[in-house]
Protein: 2-octaprenyl-3-methyl-6-methoxy-1,4-benzoquinol hydroxylase
Amino acid sequence: MASHPLNFHAVVVGGGLVGKTAALALAQSGLRTALLAPPAAGLPAGAQFDSRIYALSSSSQTLLERLRVWQALDRSRLGPVFDMRVFGDAHAELHFSAFQASVPQLAWIVESMMIEQSLDAALHFQPSLSWFESRAQGLTIDDDAAHVALASGEMLQTDLVVGADGAHSWVRAKMGAKVDRRDYRQTGVVANFKAEKAPGEAAYQWFRDSEIIALLPMPNDHVSLVWSARTEHADKLLALDPAQLASEVEHATQNMLGALDCVTPAQGFPLALQTVDKLIAPRVALVGDAAHLIHPLAGQGMNLGLRDVAALADVITNKESFRNLGNPILLRCYERARREDIQKLMVATDGLQRLFSVPGTLARAVRNTGMALVSAQPLVKRWLVSAALG
Structure:
């Protein structure tokens, strides 16, 4: 344990996009901020695209613009989504249009590595930020401060610890939060493809055999696959060579975009619904996957985490001058601000996943009839788009 602790207003534990965004937001507010994160891993040798992509909503774009990260992204590699076509498993179809919803776009498709590189560049220019690559191994809380012990032997003293360290959060375990996790028994299979037919700035999604397949538009006629497959099926997909995987995707998507050429290795990640009983504890707040996990069928997981960051930053920016960052009233304001948004999105995504997992002709007829009814209601569709945009 270091004899002279290093003092900060906030310590952010976790080096994903949400953690780095949180650290940047706090540092740009003039707060002495520590980020505990390993260096970013680069793309595999020869890779042209990152297999990990996100569909960022307007709320996420607004936050990244405020932090001057969005402006640094390579515009030629951003994929706007102006239309989305959703196909049921019995001929029903939903069409969402940015034009009909009176919004600039439904989402932006952005590679994870692009955002991370822009965040890293911005973080390195923050004089009030200190970046530690050592991991945290001890956390104690007292009336005056939180104390974070690092594996390197350094001790950090802070008003607030922000847990942004993912689904298996160390910070969450230390604060004693209870976790309710339900495994969907599905794996998200992701890869990028060159398409014979241009996606035309449209996203496509199919509900098929209790699985969900999405093709998301990227620049230069490329698309990104997100296939939420049963785990045993996903294992088979991940074992295919690139040409075989492309053939499987072509068949599953009814050759909507013609022949596909796989340009990145496929990757898989387990899917689960995860809730926690509290987002805060004395001098601790959770954001991102440490606070919640949802099904990726609506592409809203990253947006939900970035809305956590925006809410926490707003609460801190607007706090009374006599309150420090670990003040219980301040942290309760953050938790209240996030609970409804998190709960609504969890119920919506989990409900859809359950609905399309029910076997049988009757269940299929009910859900496809529901899709047809929604498709015929422009006001309902506009409300759904507004909710997704945050």
